[in-house]
Specification:
The chain has 173 residues and is mostly helical. Helix content is 57%, strand content 7%. Strand 1 and strand 2 form a beta hairpin.
């Protein structure tokens, strides 16, 4: 049943994004947040959907706190350090405050950091290649396409039907 509520919550969020768009298809995140705040303050909202939103909110709050307390370079007098006792080292499935970290924790954190850095570099390269290719296509066909949707459908054959051999959900760690 939880999956049904999660799906209903996803639809509510997608509808909020759509309703916050202007005629050019642009929106501000704060406008989407305002729409969602209105939806979640409705006393008639189904309890299961409200619980699903609460679970997702909790997950987001944990992620936000982890990002806020992620170790980063700080000036301490004439020295520079990453140490802050209340910051968290993310070790995969568990986190540890820096004050309690061991040498094994530091080694795992460093390995995770290197893996994440290589993923970021690969994802950025893919983004740059995609954007450059589409910009080149716009330039090769001036005035033919008003927006990316028209370009993708008209030149690259994009459709609503998934390609069962290549479309997949991205890996999420």
């Amino acid at each position: 049943m939880t999956d049904l509520y999660e799906a209903a919550l996803d639809r509510l969020v997608q509808d909020a994004f759509r309703s916050a768009r202007n005629e050019a298809g642009r929106f501000r995140p704060k406008d989407v947040e305002a729409v969602l705040a209105g939806i979640f303050s409705d006393p008639n909202l189904e309890e299961g959907v409200r619980a699903a939103a609460g679970r997702r909110l909790a997950k987001g709050l944990v992620r936000s706190e982890g990002e806020k307390r992620n170790p980063r370079r700080r000036k301490r007098g004439k020295r520079s350090t990453m140490y802050a006792p209340d910051d968290y080292l993310r070790l995969g499935g568990e986190w540890v405050e820096m004050r309690d970290a061991t040498d094994t924790d530091l080694a795992q954190w460093a390995r995770n950091s290197a893996t994440n850095a290589s993923r970021v570099v690969a994802a950025d390269a893919e983004t740059q290649d995609y954007a450059a290719d589409r910009i080149d296509a716009y330039r090769a066909h001036p005035g033919l396409f008003r927006n990316l949707d028209e370009l993708e459908r008209g030149l690259y054959g994009w459709s609503e039907q998934p390609d069962l051999f290549t479309d997949h959900e991205p890996d999420r760690d």
